[in-house]
Amino acid sequence: MLPFFAVICGAALLVWSADRFVTGAAAMAHHGGVPPLLIGMVVVGFGTSAPEMLVSAISAWQGNPGIALGNAYGSNIANIALILGVTAAIRPITVRSQVLRTELPILTAVTALAAWQLWDGEVTRAEAMVLLITFAGLMAWSVRQGLTHETDALGSETAQELESHPLPLRRAVLWLVVGLALLLASSRMLVWGAVEIARGFGISDLVIGLTLVAVGTSLPELASSIIAACKGEHDIALGNVLGSNLFNTLAVVGIAATIHPMAVGPEVLRRDVVVMAALTLALFIIGYNFRAPGRIHRIEGALLVACYVFYTALLAKSIGNN
User: What is the pLDDT of residues 50-64, one digit of tens each?
Assistant: First the structure.
């Protein structure tokens, strides 16, 4: 029972500490005069992906690369199918931000790069460096967009959110430090519990990473996206998912594979990458809309959730077959 307790408590603490970390980092950046769009694109994106980064890095360091890879790709699948699906089912999401519309094809291209790297059945350190260099280029582009697009919808929503919940600098620093410390502790707790469960039930590290760990580390995005959508901050809701998936595909996998190169089983290409790529392409088609602002309706949200249920059933079937 102790590993299950560690996973549940670790995930709960991960959600709380990630929220405190993002709040503190965003408030500090705001006090430092960082443009709201840049905060929304980079600071919040980094903060909401911090759980995946830490969990995957710790997993790779401890010799469990399956959890690291499963966490990254499972989180991407959960972000689109589960988080955006549930959020849109509660309240339809309208894509007004031009920056986010630009990020949609970028995410599609990055997903194609990830699939191409996995084609030979491994992610080497050299390929990890390609991911990290691509990530650095994307961050440079994000900084440029944040400094030049002052009237973007995502920036306006981020500015409104920061102004409605002002945080003194001293408290922002406190939340940043406390959030980061608890992120580290809860990540280690979650990884330990997940590894022990996998060993106890004879389940592969990959499947545990794709399910328990991926959902656990995606909970911060779920909470923030639902809250943002209910407030009418549609671009923040979508921005959370796009930013997280870009960070996961490039930085999370890149850091983990740099620490420990990953052998990739054929089921990853046949099942997980296909699902991730299909969902990413569907999000691009739904959200981009060449003639008008994209919109994810309730029916489309329900279909995304159904896709996640189907994918989870596939994973459950693979466990049964083993």
Answer: 888 888 888 889 888
Is residue 124 classed as helix, strand or coil in its secondary structure? coil
Cα separation of 315 and 24, whole Å?
A: 37
What's the CA gap between 195 and 216, in Å, rounded? 14
Q: In CATH, what number is assigned to the domain containing residue 88? A: 1.20.1420.30
* DSSP strand pairing (122-123 vs 294-296): unpaired
Q: Is residue 127 part of a domain?
A: yes
Name the residue range of residue 57's domain: 37-159+202-321
Question: Do the domain assignments include residue 71?
Answer: yes
The total number of structural domains in the chain stands at: 1
The number of beta carbons lying within 10 Å of the beta carbon of residue 258 is 19
Q: What is the pLDDT of residues 85-125, one digit of tens each?
A: 998 888 888 877 777 788 889 999 999 999 999 998 899 99
CB 48 within 8 A of CB 15: no
Are 233 and 155 a contacting pair, CB within 8 Å? no
Closest listed residue to residue 56, CA positions, set 193, 236, 248: 248
Q: Which two tokens stand for residue 282?
A: 């569907």
96, 226 in Cβ contact below 8 A?
no
Residue 19 domain-assigned?
A: no
